[in-house]
Amino acid sequence: MRRFALQRNKEKLRNRSKLDIIYDILVSATGGVKKTHIMARANLSSEQMNFYFTTLLHHSLLDADKDSEDNLIYRTTQKGVKFLHCCANIKSLIAPVTKVRMQNELLFL
Fold first, then answer.
1. Taking CA 93 as the corner, what is the angle to CA 92 and CA 97, rounded to the nearest 5 degrees?
2. Pairing of strands 99-102, 62-66
3. pTM of the model
């Protein structure tokens, strides 16, 4: 019994794939938020954040804009939303069904 519990804990501690991290970033940014909010929601270090933000901005999956208070706000683009839907379709083929809420839209994963 104890061996089973230890094995389950190890499964929870597995590293996320790059696709999982990108997915978490794009879901976090669907409503338009500051970089620090995305970092916290997607559980990223500053090093990871810099790498992924550069990549996502370059591929137009994420967009940067200023809000009324001159803060830099990041938002998932239409291309990014399409990417999220593709990920949801792929995950539905290989994983049990779970629900994820994305800015007024419900995705089934």
1. 35
2. unpaired
3. 0.73
